[in-house]
Amino acid sequence: MAILKVEGLVKTYKDLKALDNVSFEFNKGILSLLGPSGCGKTTLLRCIAGLEVPDDGSIYIDDKVQTSIRETILVPPYSRAIGFVFQSYALWPHMTVYKNVAFGLKLTKVPDGEIRKKVIATLDLVGLHGLDQRYPSQLSGGQQQRVALARSIAMEPRLILLDEPLSNLDAKLREEMRVELKKLIKKVGISAVYVTHDQEEAFVISDTVIVMDGGRILQYATPDEIYNRPADQFVASFIGRSVLVDGKMVKVDNENCLVAVPEFNNAVLVCHRPQSGGAGDPCKLVIRTSEIKLNSKRFESQENVLEGSMSGRDYRGGLTDHRIQVGSREIVVTSHKLCPMINVDNDGGKIFLHIDPSAISVIIDKPQAVPQHAGG
Amino acid sequence: MKKRTLLAVVVSIFSVTVALGSVALAASAPSDPFTKVSGELYAKAKQEGALTVYSVWDVEHIVAILGAFSKRYPGIKTNYWQGRNPEIVTRVMTEFQAGRDSVDAILSDNAPPVIRAAGAIMAYETVQKASLILHDPTMPVVSLQIQALVYNTKKLKPADLPKSWEDVANPKYKGNVALDDPMRAGPLSTQLAALKGLWKDDARWTRFVKGLKALGVPVHKSTSAMMRLVIAGEYALAMPALLHDVVNEMGKGTPVNLVKTASPIVFARYAGIYAKAAHPNAAKLLAEWLISTEGQATLDSIGREASRKGFQSKTSIGHAYPAGTQPIPVHDKLFLEDPKKWLDTNVKPLWEG
Amino acid sequence: MLFRSFTTGRLGTIVAFNVQNYIKVFTDPEILPMINNSILYAAGSAALGTGVGAMLAWIVARTNTPGRVLVELMPLYPILMPPIMKNIAWILLLAPKSGILNGFLRENFGIQQLVFNAFTLPAMVWVFGLACVPLGYLFLLPVFLSFDPSLEESAYISGSKPMRTMLRITFPLAFPAFLSAFVLNFLRGLRSFETPVLQGSPGGINVFVAKVYDSMSVEYNPGIATAYSTVLIILSVLALLFYVRATRFSERYATITGKGYRVKVIDIGKWKYATFLAVFAYFLVGIAIPFVVLIVVSLIPYYDYETFMMFPANIDLSNYHRVLNHPSFVSGLYNSLFLSVTIALVTVLAGIIMAFTIYRTKVYGSKVFEFIGTMPLAFPPLVLSLGLVIAVIGTPLYNTLWALGLGLFVAYFPYALRNASGAIVNIHKELDEAAWVHGARWRHVFFQVTLPLLKPTVTGALFYIFIEAIRNIDVAVLLVAPGNEYGPVTLFEYFRVGQWAEAAAGGVIYLIILILAVSIAKFVFKIKFSL
To answer: Following DSSP, what letter does each residue of A64-90 receive, concatenated?
Structure first.
């Protein structure tokens, strides 16, 4: 049984295709919709909530049809029994925290005493004990965020939708909140669809991720799979600290392949073999910089070692960004104080980089078929 | 747009007589036509039981008039509505076209002729026509609009005063005349129509209109505003002012006075009876009563001009002007029927040409 | 909505197309200069009034100008003074030869030149512009009061100084409300009657409305009047189209968002003395000076410069006697108070519902009502009044208080609608949507979210419409049933019949009553006119 099923969703604004035949199914847990702004993720979320009407397609929540353009079914948002956390929180400034949270419950004609119990319990759950008589303007950004969450879970929906809920918080708070948010959602035991443009946030918070661009689903998989096996170059470049370079397959055997990279002075790298492609095919390499080893001395092995020069170092507290010129490319490798992979003691001198085959994904230039129903 | 129906009733020659030095009128004698007709009208009006009046006059005045009328003729419930002339015309015409009978009598100067021209006035000739300064066979003339030439006594010495209306066009008054817009249906256009008829000399009249235009002064659309500006000293002459306004202001000690050598222009203030009146007899009774000495005294008590010959009041020509002054009425048939058309034919070519 | 389209439909019957009338109107050689004058006058006044109103609203809402609390209500007092009172006061002040100001310059400084002239276009713009200030203030104040300070703070962080931020961030965000007020004031200017008649014609500046009046009074010709009105309607439609276009991306202007914040007062440094002076100067020219002139005029036997300067040696209370003894003083006042309060409530509520429907629902064609609802503004009062009479004359409503109420409703609905539209645009859509997804239906969204958030706007509009309705004659006049005394007639007939001294006395009495009412409302019943 799927908590959410979307079939053939299409939505066009004038010439812009916000949703281009989007279909997926989602069973339980936390699903992130990840993509750059304008990729259609918010439109998708609003269609699920019933705030937007798609041009075509259908949406099922808990196997019950909510939107079906062909059957002209459109359940209004107030009957979908979902929670929604808005980007701006959308707390009603004229109501106290208590009234904000109790709003939906009051409309369901639950007895007052029960509402009171539920609201207080929810506020305690999100860590806002004793703040129920405050107005939103008297709360900090993080507290407002919790109120918004409390409001959406107070009605105990099966599914809550969150539209970039953390984007208005500062960086530090954002990191704290995303973990807390995840714990909370798990604790309450509901499913969530979470919209974000921050891959790290998506990876931390969700069980499965949908990467979108141009109104299409590019990849639907677990964070691990997306990170290690990006479906295409867009996914690869979008999910972060990686270097994308053009290459040409030189040799292919059962397990591995050799790829020559012109930008790295035509160095040849050993990589895991992709599903298709043969010798002579052009390809792209996605190199995850976090898995690169650095050394100011030569490595013992010669395989997959590149030579470069240190063009600068940016100190970031516990972390340091090393900027290294390799051939015609600059690569940024971040190190931790205790990181055993990096052993650099001189500035401006020669630097050797070791890239393990597992840190490289090979993408054949012709676009692959997009998997529609990956695991999850 | 409504098709203009020409009034079938021929507006007869106005009988204008000036009754000066005539004996003060005693209370109506039994043989008086008013006494005779009012008895009959009252009996019928009482049956009708009500009377609604639309008027341009001040609410205070309407209330005073209807109060006195009700006291004299109990059993007739009176009602009024006050509006400006365009509003009265609009309301009556709209009600007429919708077949409403919400009004009985219309007390005003400029509105009733327009309404009559559209066929919404019930012709009624007063039985007291012999006593009137101005008579119209279809609408009783209950009061008069008397135009006076007025000057600011601080601004003009008696020696510099114009001798007549015609004199105002003298270039020496340039910049000192508060001039009414001759192209609106206001007092100045009435005056022009009156003088044209009086002089019967088109060259002279044309000279006069062109002379006024040559003064180069802006035109006003409100005689009362002109009057205030003359009092304030903005202008020296009001071309023209209304006599009751002048008398009222002079009573307050305002520095204005009449140019007594310029004969007053008179124009009727009617009690027109609405064509679809629900209470026509009550309306007629009101009109007759207003013309009677008692009604005229009521009008005088609120400072309104009397229309009855020889009636002495502070706003009467006899009181304000020297003996022998001849008031100038409007005879022009076209002007009375369709003032806009008259203005377009006669004044517009001179004024805008 | 049905009821509105009905009214408008009936109104439409008098706008019946008649080629002859239109030919007559559009071949009138005076038409171009008249359109030109009308636009200059209306746009000038609207720009002056709305601009000053916006500035005052910003000063009151957002700056640390000294005495802010005192001035909170100040910009509103001029509404209490009917436009024609201001015309009279300013004519007395600015008349070339007899005016107080020129007289003063002559007597004290020997300046013989006639510096001021009430009968010029700038003077018309000045007087009517001042009358436009309160509307601008009322429309803009709630916007500034509900402004998310982070919008401004982000500008400060980018290195923008407070005054610059005001110009670059604050005012642009208040743009829809500003434009709403501007368009309304512009339309008021196009159809205003008193200023053109009292100041324009004597200065040779002819505007459109005067023509409409002439065609109604000289020849009973509603066709021509309507044809003339068509020109006004075209201008109004253009103004509205401009408005709709300019505020197309309404979400951009949402200043009330779901993020809680406290409205912050900005320290504008030494500028605060300048803003204080601005408020004080406005108080002087907008209220104090004309009011004092009128009080003096109401107390002296007549106005000319010498008599005016003799005051108070020549006090005379006869004008007050006359007004207070007016036969319908008490009953009329009572009727109009009752009706104005009712109309203000009904109209404002309807305006909000309509604005809500237009901006927050997907009801088909609701945008059209934006135009239809604003249409009555384009008609000169007499033509509008006629349209209303035609609409109700065949119904049992005619000659009842209901018809009058309906007339006032139609006349003031545009204000309520524009006001509510400007305010609703300022409320972030997510606030509605949050209610919607959490189980609220439209009625819940409307009554529990939108309406409470609109409270500051609602109070402003209520106040404004109440004040306007209580002294309305022009629209009401044809709908007043005989014998049904409607208050304004009492005090304002003096203006209509042109008796300035009595008018001044009536105006002073009326102002005192209203100021008392406002003060009681504010201090006794704690009704706030702003946030």
So the answer is: EEEEETTTTEE--GGGS-EEEE-TT--
Distance CA A168, CA C186 (A): 41
Residues B286, B185, single domain; the answer is: no
Here the CATH number for the domain that contains residue B232 is 3.40.190.10
Domain extent for C451: 2-11+18-524
To the nearest 10 degrees (0 to 180), the angle between helices C500-519 and C289-299 is 130
Q: Which of C18, C95, C489 sits opposite B234 (nearest CB)?
A: C95
> What letter would DSSP give residue C256?
B
Range list for CATH 2.40.50.140 in chain A: 241-364
Closest-CA distance, C453 to chain A, in angstroms, reads 7
Residue B276 lies inside a defined structural domain of this protein: yes
B225–C210 CB contact, under 8 Å: no
Q: pLDDT band for position C165 (50/70/90)?
A: low
Domain assignment of residue C531, yes or no: no
Domain count, chain C: 1
CB–CB of A32/A202 below 8 Å?
A: yes
Question: Digits of tens for pLDDT over chain B (353 positions)?
Answer: 344 433 333 333 343 443 333 333 444 444 588 888 999 999 999 999 999 999 988 888 898 999 999 999 999 999 988 888 888 888 898 889 888 888 999 999 888 988 888 889 999 999 998 989 889 899 999 999 899 999 999 989 888 999 999 999 999 898 889 999 888 778 899 999 999 999 999 999 999 999 999 988 778 877 888 898 899 888 999 999 999 889 888 888 889 999 999 999 999 999 999 999 999 999 999 999 999 999 999 999 988 888 988 888 888 888 888 988 888 998 888 888 777 788 889 998 888 76
Task: Compute, in degrees rounded to 10, the torsion defined by CA atoms A308, A313, A314, A316.
Answer: 100
The answer to whether position B121 is within a domain reads yes
Taking CB atoms and an 8 Å limit, are C201 and B252 in contact across chains? no
| Domain membership flag for residue B181 | yes
Integer Cα distance of A79 and B333 in angstroms: 78
Rg (CA), chain A: 24
- Per-residue tokens: B193: 């129509």
Looking at the complex, report in whole angstroms how far the Cα of residue C95 sits from the nearest Cα belonging to chain B.
Answer: 7
> Which class is A4-233 in CATH?
alpha beta
Same domain, B209 and B293: no
Q: Cα–Cα distances in Å, from C225 out to C210, C412, C460, C491?
A: 10, 22, 34, 28
Note whether residue C529 is domain-resident: no
Same domain, B246 and B161: yes
User: What's the CA gap between C359 and C366, in Å, rounded?
Assistant: 8
CATH classification number, A241-364, choose in 3.40.1180.10, 2.40.50.140, 2.70.98.40, 3.30.565.10: 2.40.50.140
Q: Which domain holds residue B258?
A: 145-265+344-352
Q: Is C433 on the interface with A (CB under 8 A)?
A: yes
Q: How many domains does chain B have?
A: 2
> Among all residues of chain C, which has the CA nearest to that of B154?
C304
Partner residue opposite C431 with nearest CB, options A81, A90, A152: A90
- Indicate the residue of A76, A87, A93 with minimum beta-carbon distance to C260: A93
Q: Is residue B5 part of a domain?
A: no
Please give the residue of chain A at the shortest CA–CA distance from C453.
A94
Task: Please name the helix (run of DSSP H) or strand (run of DSSP E) that holds residue C456, with its range, or none.
Answer: helix C455-470
Instruction: Give the one of A88, A138, A152 whose C-beta lies nearest to C430's C-beta.
Output: A88
Q: Quick check: ipTM above 0.90?
A: no
Evaluate the CA torsion angle C21, C27, C29, C34 in order and state its sign.
positive
CATH code of the domain in which C22 resides: 1.10.3720.10
Neighboring chain A residues of C453 at a CB cutoff of 8 Å: 92-94
B106 plus B40 within the same structural domain: yes
Burial of B50 (0-12, 13-18, 19+ CB in 10 A): middle
